[in-house]
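Example (one chain per record):
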Amino acid sequence: MTLSSNPAPLSIPVQDDMAAGNTDTGTPMIQVESLSKTYRDGFQALKQVELTIRRGEIFALLGPNGAGKTTLISVICGLVNATSGSVKVDGFDNQTEYRQARERIGLVPQELTNEAFTTVWDTVSFSRGLFGKPKDPRHIENVLRALTLWDKRDNRLLELSGGMKRRVLIAKALSHNPQVLFLDEPTAGVDVELRREMWEVVRGLRDQGVTIILTTHYIEEAEEMADRIGVIRRGELVLVEDKATLMQQLGRKELTLHLSAPLEAIPAALSGHELSLAEEGHALVYTYDVAHQQEGSGIAGLLADLEATGIRVKDLHTRQSSLEDIFVDLVRESA
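Predicted structure:
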């Protein structure tokens, strides 16, 4: 086996050698329609899910444990049969055209199920062969280098740390040049430094046209990486939205006003504002949405009313809702 000392950057062709693939960038990469899944014991894991995932985007699927995230991914990947509904991958039905749909997908599962005594090189190469792909040592080398696994290529999997084993799962998923990459909790058990390095790899894949679907418990991961966000609860998609739009529409801000003298209660003259006392009366907290802030009248009116009541402010600062705040509110409202 002869390998180059300076391989090209990791490249995952969007079309690769799939002659029958759909090259229309306006066609959704994943199309889910009226998808339901009920298990034999009667548990309904998915309820009439409708979802369109665009080509070349990073889509984050959020939800509490047992919400249906893994079941949805498993159905799309063809690992679990749906009770009703349909799934298309790059225009191919994942039931009637299973081979064409499945070979476009790379899946990184939650579980570390690697073969303990196999080397990194062998397990990644074997995964490529499972999809009927010809041997391509250069591609395997590029994948391993991009995931910082090249120096571990001859190590047996039992010799690797948990973070490195998770990288091997990603390498296996990329071995056959997929157009879609599913990452089911990809950074669970990975330290912060490795997590950020892996985010860079994922962004690089997205920039090359690979569609990324990510499930995660790390809300900051979705906030950092995703183009769009979906929230699933009890098998139902309660929201799908562009991240920026979601933050603008649902994000709220807090203006904390530190007072020169403490208050025992909020004066009646300020009852028209969404205020609460904090810091044992030494601060007023004003909560408002982004649209209200853009109008400009809310804060201006508050400050005018404060001046009229003789309340003096010595300092102030603002805080905007994070995606975690929004997620918690959505899940609570859907309870």
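Caption: Residues 1-9, 11-21 have pLDDT under 50 and may be disordered.
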